[in-house]
């Protein structure tokens, strides 16, 4: 099997897998499962579906991501970044539309992996990922205000933030002190444990304390039981999502958005794991594994699956050594659901909203956000454009515009790095001093379409002013077709003026590209060095009197 498409699980088994590693992976898997249990239900509820679908996603999707993916430490499951997309899909197309869109996204992810597009997804600029993540965090938090404060809304809560804020403000008189207290208790417990007992499972303990307090004090708050009737004790029987050409066409934009966001989120999570462990993931098989996981999740009634940064980092810190930790995390979640499903009915929704409030706060990379605002005007524009578009417009639009601005910024910066200067400025033996009829120009850097106008204007000014023109390309690191066309235009102008042109130091790839654009002998002479060009020029010049 091509190693590029070999799941990391196979690589681990080929290395030899013993009891010591299994024990470490079991401890890490249990730790992650404890974190994922309340988080999966909270994300599902915030996404507009029942909490059991979050567990189905974490169990089935998490198992398949670890078993078939390209990272040793990746933990798959429902992610906060999908909350807005999933909620919008459910609102517009119902659960059947969500399941079909999830399965279609899985197919798109598999296709992306097979086409080796995983190598390109990693090129998303850093300001885009920071702005996108911060925007998602704002949206998640705003979506939890109703549950955090126990507000009673006259109608369904609007999705867009601009429409939501006036509705929430008008509903403030309906605030439920008990729900707000439970939410505050959950948040305070998580923060206190994080400060004084960081190794303890703060999320689970906080939800447990809040549930116990709400039950013993008979607080008038909504719980999973009162709103959803609890959760089942086992996975449902797998079944194909409802399909019709009309529904498939309707959810196609959602499926593309799921696939795009899933690819970015999962590969970013894998990169984070690589940075923590020194390992390297396989991008394309990771996308294929994510695709299979999304299809599997849809078959079992789950939602979108992706690699999750926080749970993956928890896995690494807990000592996970292989994909078995992710597989065991899914197994432990299944056991928890089988044994403790009745207890989930007592969990207050305000407590789960408190969990998501902490998650949204952690998602904002505050030092990185501040650093990017200070670093340069271009990075700040990309960051703020992505951030504001995600909040006030659309997730996909934010990514696309941010990526486009980042690419234009990169092109502008790279174009300024290209140099085209007279060689005598860099040489101790200037050719121009010994031969006033000859000029040598050195082109350096990445000579591509972004720099073509600048370089072309310089070459045009000197192409017909001398008898001999030498272009030193030995310092060119990259050349594209636009750059080759610029040189071809210079050669044509020089030829009309009777100027003899030499190209020095062009490597075989550059020379082939230039020859493709009709830059061939005898119009131009290819030489290895400037010294070789000087020798040829002197051979045809008459001796000085």
UniProtKB/TrEMBL annotation:
<feature type="transmembrane region" description="Helical">
    <location>
        <begin position="330"/>
        <end position="359"/>
    </location>
</feature>
<feature type="transmembrane region" description="Helical">
    <location>
        <begin position="81"/>
        <end position="111"/>
    </location>
</feature>
<feature type="transmembrane region" description="Helical">
    <location>
        <begin position="54"/>
        <end position="75"/>
    </location>
</feature>
<keyword id="KW-1133">Transmembrane helix</keyword>
<keyword id="KW-0812">Transmembrane</keyword>
<feature type="transmembrane region" description="Helical">
    <location>
        <begin position="287"/>
        <end position="310"/>
    </location>
</feature>
<dbReference type="Pfam" id="PF00916">
    <property type="entry name" value="Sulfate_transp"/>
</dbReference>
<dbReference type="InterPro" id="IPR002645">
    <property type="entry name" value="STAS_dom"/>
</dbReference>
<dbReference type="Pfam" id="PF01740">
    <property type="entry name" value="STAS"/>
</dbReference>
<feature type="transmembrane region" description="Helical">
    <location>
        <begin position="255"/>
        <end position="275"/>
    </location>
</feature>
<protein>
    <submittedName>
        <fullName>SulP family inorganic anion transporter</fullName>
    </submittedName>
</protein>
<dbReference type="InterPro" id="IPR011547">
    <property type="entry name" value="SLC26A/SulP_dom"/>
</dbReference>
<dbReference type="InterPro" id="IPR001902">
    <property type="entry name" value="SLC26A/SulP_fam"/>
</dbReference>
<feature type="transmembrane region" description="Helical">
    <location>
        <begin position="123"/>
        <end position="145"/>
    </location>
</feature>
<feature type="transmembrane region" description="Helical">
    <location>
        <begin position="200"/>
        <end position="219"/>
    </location>
</feature>
<feature type="transmembrane region" description="Helical">
    <location>
        <begin position="26"/>
        <end position="47"/>
    </location>
</feature>
<feature type="transmembrane region" description="Helical">
    <location>
        <begin position="380"/>
        <end position="411"/>
    </location>
</feature>
<keyword id="KW-0472">Membrane</keyword>
<dbReference type="InterPro" id="IPR036513">
    <property type="entry name" value="STAS_dom_sf"/>
</dbReference>
<feature type="transmembrane region" description="Helical">
    <location>
        <begin position="165"/>
        <end position="193"/>
    </location>
</feature>
<feature type="domain" description="STAS">
    <location>
        <begin position="428"/>
        <end position="537"/>
    </location>
</feature>
<feature type="transmembrane region" description="Helical">
    <location>
        <begin position="439"/>
        <end position="459"/>
    </location>
</feature>
């Amino acid at each position: 099997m091509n190693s590029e498409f070999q799941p990391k699980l196979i690589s681990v088994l080929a290395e030899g897998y013993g009891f010591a590693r299994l024990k470490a992976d079991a401890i890490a898997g249990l730790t992650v499962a404890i974190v994922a249990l309340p988080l999966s239900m909270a994300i599902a509820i915030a996404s507009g579906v029942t909490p059991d679908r979050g567990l189905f996603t974490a169990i089935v999707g998490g198992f398949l991501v670890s078993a078939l993916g390209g990272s040793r430490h990746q933990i798959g499951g429902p992610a906060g970044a999908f909350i807005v997309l999933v909620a919008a899909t459910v609102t517009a197309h119902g659960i059947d539309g969500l399941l079909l869109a999830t399965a279609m996204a899985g197919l798109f992810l598999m296709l992306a992996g097979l086409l080796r597009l995983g190598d390109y997804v990693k090129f998303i600029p850093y300001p885009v990922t920071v702005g996108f993540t911060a925007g998602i965090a704002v949206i998640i938090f705003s979506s939890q205000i109703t549950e955090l404060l126990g507000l009673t809304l006259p109608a369904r809560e609007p999705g867009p933030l601009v429409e939501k804020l006036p509705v929430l403000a008008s509903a403030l008189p309906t605030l439920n002190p008990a729900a707000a207290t439970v939410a505050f208790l959950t948040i305070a417990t998580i923060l206190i444990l994080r400060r004084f007992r960081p190794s303890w499972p703060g999320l689970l303990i906080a939800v447990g304390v809040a549930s116990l307090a709400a039950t013993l004090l008979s607080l008038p708050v909504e719980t999973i039981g009162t709103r959803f009737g609890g959760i089942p004790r086992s996975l449902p029987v797998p079944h194909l999502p409802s399909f019709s050409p009309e529904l498939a066409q309707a959810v196609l934009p959602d499926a593309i958005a799921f696939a795009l966001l899933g690819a970015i989120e999962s590969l970013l999570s894998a990169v984070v794991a690589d940075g923590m462990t020194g390992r390297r993931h396989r991008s394309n098989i990771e996308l294929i594994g994510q695709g299979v996981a999304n299809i599997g999740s849809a078959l079992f009634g789950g939602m979108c699956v992706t690699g999750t940064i926080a749970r993956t980092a928890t896995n690494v810190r807990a000592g996970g050594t292989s994909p078995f930790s992710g597989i065991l995390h899914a197994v432990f979640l299944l056991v928890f659901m089988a044994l403790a499903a009745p207890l989930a009915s007592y969990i207050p929704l305000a407590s789960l909203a408190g969990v998501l409030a902490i998650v949204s706060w952690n998602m904002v990379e505050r030092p990185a956000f501040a650093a990017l605002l200070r670093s340069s005007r271009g990075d700040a524009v990309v960051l703020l454009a992505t951030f504001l578009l995600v909040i006030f417009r659309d997730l996909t639009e934010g990514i696309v515009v941010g990526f486009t601005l980042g690419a234009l910024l990169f092109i502008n910066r790279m174009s300024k790095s290209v140099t085209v200067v007279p060689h005598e400025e860099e040489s101790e033996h200037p050719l121009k001093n010994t031969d006033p009829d000859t000029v040598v120009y050195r082109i350096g850097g990445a000579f591509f379409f972004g720099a073509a106008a600048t370089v072309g204007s310089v070459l045009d000014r000197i192409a017909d002013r001398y008898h001999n023109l030498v272009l030193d390309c030995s310092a060119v690191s990259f050349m594209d077709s636009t750059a080759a066309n610029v040189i071809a235009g210079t050669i044509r102008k020089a030829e009309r003026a009777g100027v003899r042109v030499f190209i020095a130091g062009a490597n075989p790839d550059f020379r082939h590209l230039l020859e493709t654009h009709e830059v061939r002998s005898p119009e131009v002479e290819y030489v290895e060095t400037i010294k070789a060009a000087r020798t040829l020029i002197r051979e045809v010049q008459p001796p000085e009197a």
